Every structure is written in structure tokens, then in C-alpha cells.
């Protein structure tokens, strides 16, 4: 399914209520009143469509990329909040219950309490949720607590919002449009039920267990999990999973990690995990035998099915995790395309799996360029961050135009590398990247 089709689908859902309102052909009102109603309708439909966007539908993230989906979610939520906030102030009509002769509510906007209170609650909750999401990283919130609050808050906003819309709205009083609102709300809630109840139930029937937790660099571990039973994960090298270790399958305590193993290596799945916060700081203490659950595969950072004459992998820090999966797969499947890995770290002890990388270089011919920003005095490799000059040297000639470029690392690194590659004439369709943060 092409990505433009998904985009059109979301636009269509968001515009459906506006279209139905317009098709009612009600007598016209002053333009500000029409804009007020339109803003309210659009805010509501965008918010409901967001539930579908965020429900971890693989096809969505596979086509658009998870970080693009998250960015879209943030921008759409902010736009919807602005529309919702301004719409009550735009009405010019008199605020009172419409008398019987004003059947189409052309001259009055309702001020009845039963119609207004749900809207007022949603009106306060929505910007609060958006502001909390924007400021989350600066607040002392546990991520899981924030996620739960965000989810419950969104459900309340959706419910109160629809209630207000059908009770107060001029156009939503129409039986067709009011049915559409309830159906859209139902679909949104079903999407949540599917993500947080049905799919976890399905996962509870397919448990995994931890088989090894090995240190692979400073404060970095490789965790291996293997299926308990005869199920297995069908994934592509470079994709990621939501990993839940040692919690109920219904728990919100799950984190996204790129898969560092190769599908060709068998059913065992591995993750390279860097200590960063409350879950990852304890990853080294996880005991083999601990039960795990995987919501996977997700993500688009994969070279499978993409025509390319060579493969360039550019990783910063723990961004090596998906690259390891791709390298292991290329090696294991005997892929003969030329491959270059540029791998940047702060110091030598942070390089994950240095011996295996050397072996891959010797056996598979992968060209590996290490770069350190704080090298020790014996270091003979590249120094500093990845620069346009380094990329020009490695990929500047015409033979590299048809390669695929896979990027994973800190956002600042991704920006520099993407811009430099595009300046080298690499088409953006040949550059795929993943950020490890949605902030
Ligand atoms: C697609 C993707 C792939 C990733 N792959 C890897 C990888 O291979 N190796 C690796 O070490 N790290 C990876 N990360 C980052 C990893 O998910 C976070 O470092 C980890 O979740 C931090 O959890 P914590 O509880 O230890 O830290 P916290 O202190 O709880 O969180 C630190 C930050 O991590 C992010 N985070 C935490 N929990 C979640 C969650 N459930 N969902 C989304 N973001 C969360 C938030 O931005 C949060 O501010 C990846 C992230 C993404 C989005």
C-alpha cells in the first residue's frame, strides 16, 4: 500500500464530518460562525483519526516510518488543540437556546449546560495534555505514568468532545452526522482495545524467555530472547520490537528496541540496549529464564525489497543495533553487495561488539570506519563526529549514487548526515533513517 494512500485515508477521515456538514445545505450564517463550526468539527475529527494513527498498525509505521508517524501525531494534536481552543470565541450569533422558529439554528448558538459542559472539559483537557507532552522531558514523570495519563486523557477528550459536538453542534444535530461521530468514536476506542487488550492477549499465548544478557560495551548489553513454544517472529533485519521483560503482557512497561539479530540466524531475537533510564539501567541484572513478550515487528529501517548496488550503514552510539541486524543478515545470506559501516562513538570502550565487527569485515568484506569524539592517545582511526568531508570521501563518487543509505543515531547526527548525503546528490528516496526518540 503506497504511503500517499495512507495519507489520503487520514485526510478523508478528518474531512468526512466537514463534508457531511456542508452537504446538509443549511441556510448560511455569517462567515465567522461557519468558521467556528468548521474549526470545532475539524478539531474533533483530527483527534479521532489520531487514535488510528497511533495504534501501532504495522502497515502505517512500515510505510511512513515510526518517527514520521509520531511527528505527524504531535503536529496534528497541536493543530487540533488550536482549532478547538479558538472555535468558541469565533461565534457571533446570540448565545441562547434556539427558539422553535429557528429550526436550523441559524441565529443562535446554544448555551445550555448539558451541551456545554462536556465541551468545556475537553477544551481544558486537550491543551493540558498537549502542554504536558511538550514539556514531559523537563518534568519528573516516569515514562509509563505519563503514557497512561496521556492515554486516559485522550479517551476522555474524545468522549467529552463527541458528546459536546452532538449536543451543541448545529450540523452534528443531523442524525447522519451524529451517527458518524459515534461510529468514529467507537472505531477510535476499538483501536485502543485492540492495542492494549486484544494484541497483548494474543502475545500472552506466544511468550518468549531471556536466554542471555551479555555486556557488549560500556553500559551496553545484548539481550537474547527465544520463543517459548513453536512460534517465531517473522521480521526483517533492522526492524524494531516493543520489548516487555518480566511484566504481564498487559503491562505498559514495554520499550521500543531495534532488533540486532538477523532473521537468517534462526528464531532467537537479540537487542543491543544502552542504559539510559529506569528500565534500561537494570537490564544487566535480568536473569536468563525471565519471561518476555514482543510486540513486533515494527519500523521501516530495512533494506529488504529495496534495489541498491551497495549498502551504507551510518550509526551513532547505540544506533548500531539495527545496523548489526542488517550486517549479520547480509553476512549470513551471502549478500555480495559492497557494504560500508561508519560507526561513531564517544570513546573506544563504547564500541559494541568490536571483535565481531572485525570478523565481519574480514569475512564479509564490509568496510568499517570507526570515529571517536574523545579518542585515547593510541587511537589511529577517525576523530570527531561524522562530517560532510568524511561522507564526501567515502560516498562522493558516482558509483555510490545507487546505494542505499541507512542511518540511525542521535537526531543532530542524522540531520548533518542527511543534509550532507543530499548535497552529494543522493536521492532522498535512497536514505532511510530512524530516531530513537520521539521528543
Ligand atoms: C524505534 C526505536 C528504537 C529504539 N532502539 C533502541 C535500541 O536498539 N537500543 C537502545 O538502547 N535504545 C533504543 N531505543 C531507545 C529506548 O527505547 C529508550 O532508551 C528506552 O525506552 C528508555 O527506557 P528507560 O525506561 O530506561 O528510560 P526512561 O528514563 O523511562 O526514558 C528515557 C526516554 O526514553 C524514551 N522512552 C522510554 N520509554 C519509552 C517507551 N515505552 N516508548 C517510547 N519511548 C520511550 C522516552 O523518550 C524517555 O524520555 C529505541 C527507541 C525507539 C523509538
UniProtKB/TrEMBL annotation:
Protein name in UniProt: Ferric reductase
Cofactor(s) listed in the protein's UniProt record: FAD
Domain FAD-binding FR-type, chain residue ranges per copy: 203-304
GO cellular component terms given for this protein: membrane
UniProt keyword Iron-sulfur present: yes
PROSITE patterns (UniProt xref): FAD_FR
Domain of life of the source: Bacteria
Gene Ontology MF: a single term: metal ion binding
Organism: Actibacterium pelagium
InterPro entries for this protein: FAD-bd_8, FAD-bd_FR_type, Fe3_Rdtase_TM_dom, FNR_nucleotide-bd, MRET, OxRdtase_FAD/NAD-bd, Riboflavin_synthase-like_b-brl
Keyword Hydrolase listed: no
Protein localization: Membrane
Protein topology in the membrane: Multi-pass membrane protein
Listed transmembrane segments: 31-54, 75-93, 113-134, 146-167, 179-198, 310-327
Keywords annotated in UniProt: 2Fe-2S, FAD, Flavoprotein, Iron, Iron-sulfur, Membrane, Metal-binding, Oxidoreductase, Transmembrane, Transmembrane helix
Pfam short name (any one): Ferric_reduct
Matching SUPFAM superfamilies: Ferredoxin reductase-like, C-terminal NADP-linked domain, Riboflavin synthase domain-like
Gene3D superfamilies: Nucleotide-binding domain of ferredoxin-NADP reductase (FNR) module, Translation factors
Amino acid at each position: 500500500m503506497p504511503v500517499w494512500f495512507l495519507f489520503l485515508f487520514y485526510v478523508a477521515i478528518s474531512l468526512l464530518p466537514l463534508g457531511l456538514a456542508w452537504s446538509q445545505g443549511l441556510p448560511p450564517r455569517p462567515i465567522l460562525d461557519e468558521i467556528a463550526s468548521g474549526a470545532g468539527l475539524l478539531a474533533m475529527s483530527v483527534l479521532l483519526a489520531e487514535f488510528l494513527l497511533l495504534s501501532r498498525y504495522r502497515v502505517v509505521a512500515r510505510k511512513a516510518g515510526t518517527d514520521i508517524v509520531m511527528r505527524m501525531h504531535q503536529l496534528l494534536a497541536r493543530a487540533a488543540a488550536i482549532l478547538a481552543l479558538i472555535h468558541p470565541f469565533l461565534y457571533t450569533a446570540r448565545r441562547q437556546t434556539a427558539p422553535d422558529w429557528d429550526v436550523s439554528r441559524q441565529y443562535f448558538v446554544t448555551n445550555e449546560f448539558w451541551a456545554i459542559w462536556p465541551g468545556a472539559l475537553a477544551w481544558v483537557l486537550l491543551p493540558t495534555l498537549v502542554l504536558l507532552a511538550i514539556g514531559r522531558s523537563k518534568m519528573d514523570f516516569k515514562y509509563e505514568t505519563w503514557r497512561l495519563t496521556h492515554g486516559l486523557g485522550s479517551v476522555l477528550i474524545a468522549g467529552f468532545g463527541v458528546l459536546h459536538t452532538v449536543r451543541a453542534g448545529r450540523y452534528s444535530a443531523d442524525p447522519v452526522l451524529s451517527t458518524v461521530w459515534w461510529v468514529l468514536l467507537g472505531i477510535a476506542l476499538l483501536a485502543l482495545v485492540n492495542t492494549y487488550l486484544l494484541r497483548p492477549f494474543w502475545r500472552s499465548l506466544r511468550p518468549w524467555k531471556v536466554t542471555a544478557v551479555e555486556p557488549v560495551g560500556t553500559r551496553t548489553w545484548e539481550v537474547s530472547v527465544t520463543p517459548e513454544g513453536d512460534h517465531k517472529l517473522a521480521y526483517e533485519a533492522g526492524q524494531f520490537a516493543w520489548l516487555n521483560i518480566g511484566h504481564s503482557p498487559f503491562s505498559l512497561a514495554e520499550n521500543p528496541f531495534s532488533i540486532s539479530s538477523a532473521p537468517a540466524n534462526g528464531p532467537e531475537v537479540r537487542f543491543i540496549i544502552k542504559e539510559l533510564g529506569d528500565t534500561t539501567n537494570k537490564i544487566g541484572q535480568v536473569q536468563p529464564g525471565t519471561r518476555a513478550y514482543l510486540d513486533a515487528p515494527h519500523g521501516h529501517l530495512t533494506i529488504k525489497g529495496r534495489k541498491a548496488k551497495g549498502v551504507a550503514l551510518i550509526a551513532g552510539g547505540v544506533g548500531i543495533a539495527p545496523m548489526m541486524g542488517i550486517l549479520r543478515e547480509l553476512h549470513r545470506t551471502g549478500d555480495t553487495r559492497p557494504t560500508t559501516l561508519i560507526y561513531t562513538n564517544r570513546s573506544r570502550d563504547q564500541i559494541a561488539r568490536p571483535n565481531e565487527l572485525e570478523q565481519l569485515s574480514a569475512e564479509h568484506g564490509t568496510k568499517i570506519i570507526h570515529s571517536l569524539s574523545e579518542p585515547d592517545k593510541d587511537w589511529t582511526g577517525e576523530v570527531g563526529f561524522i562530517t560532510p568531508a568524511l561522507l564526501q570521501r567515502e560516498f562522493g563518487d558516482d558509483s555510490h549514487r545507487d546505494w542505499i543509505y541507512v542511518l540511525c543515531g542521535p537526531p543532530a547526527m542524522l540531520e548533518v548526515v542527511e543534509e550532507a548525503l543530499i548535497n552529494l546528490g543522493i536521492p532522498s528516496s535512497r536514505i532511510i533513517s530512524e530516531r530513537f526518540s520521539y521528543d
